[in-house]
Amino acid sequence: MRIDILSLFPEMFAGPFGHSILKRAQDNGLLQIQVTNPRDFTSDKHHIVDDYPFGGGSGMVMKPEPLYQAVQHVLTTTNIEERRIILMCPGGSLFSQHKAKELSRYGQLIFICGHYEGIDERVRLHLADEAISIGDYVLTGGELPAMVVVDTVARMIPGVLGAEDAAEGDSFYHGLLEYPQYTRPREFCGWEVPEVLLSGDHARINKWRRQQSLKNTLIRRPDLLQNIELSPDDEKLLAEIMNEVSGG
């Protein structure tokens, strides 16, 4: 996959994208990330990318021309048909694991990172394919949200995590929170690993993990249970959990 990011602060991406899983994915040719500065596509000597908002108000608004020219440059130099142009902004649709899986199927993603008071609305209406938000709060710019989306999407690309099904155990992948994880030592400060995980009985382990996943979701994020289809076995496990939680 090719990922292009339009940002006034390209240096912000060097650290997050230069380590760990994302770096290995790039080194292995599974992922290519390029950051482009819209300032390079201005026509004035001061490389101005913002201006005062029409109608008055505080702050500055990013102009449409540099962003349009930057996107056109990326499109003409990469020529990838299966692509998506995404505007990162607070007013976008809420990002989710489902959206990450959807975006991972494209050959190219182009992220537009806003800054200042915002971006000229014509960019959202006529240039971006969609707008995405990572939460109901406002950040200084779109750079941090873009990093979050790129990291999440990259995990969905086959081979990035090593095993083909590695991401399927993550929280939210199938709509539930993940089950608890344990490693050595077996006992620490009097806290012991659940005996079932040491039994070697994979059927029992899988049932325990599913039960714990349902339990974690019920206790921490019950709203998620409304959006997934549970099997008859899941329904039975959930009933047992609810009885346990209620003290029945």
UniProtKB/TrEMBL annotation:
Binding site for S-adenosyl-L-methionine: G114, I134, G135, D136, Y137, V138, L139
Entry's Gene Ontology cellular component terms: cytosol
Catalytic activity reported: guanosine(37) in tRNA + S-adenosyl-L-methionine = N(1)-methylguanosine(37) in tRNA + S-adenosyl-L-homocysteine + H(+)
GO biological process: tRNA N1-guanine methylation
Primary localisation category: cytoplasm
Entry's Gene Ontology molecular function annotations: tRNA (guanine(37)-N1)-methyltransferase activity
Compartments, as annotated in UniProt: Cytoplasm
Keyword set, alphabetical order: Cytoplasm, Methyltransferase, S-adenosyl-L-methionine, Transferase, tRNA processing
Limits of the tRNA methyltransferase TRMD/TRM10-type domain: 1-226
Pfam families: tRNA_m1G_MT (PF01746)
EC id: 2.1.1.228
Repressor keyword on record: no
Keyword Transcription regulation: no
Family note: Belongs to the RNA methyltransferase TrmD family.
Function text: Specifically methylates guanosine-37 in various tRNAs.
NCBIfam families (alphabetical): PRK00026.1 (NF000648), trmD (TIGR00088)
Subunit structure: Homodimer.
Name of the protein this chain belongs to: tRNA (guanine-N(1)-)-methyltransferase
Species in which this protein is naturally found: Lucifera butyrica
Lineage: Bacteria, Bacillati, Bacillota, Negativicutes, Veillonellales
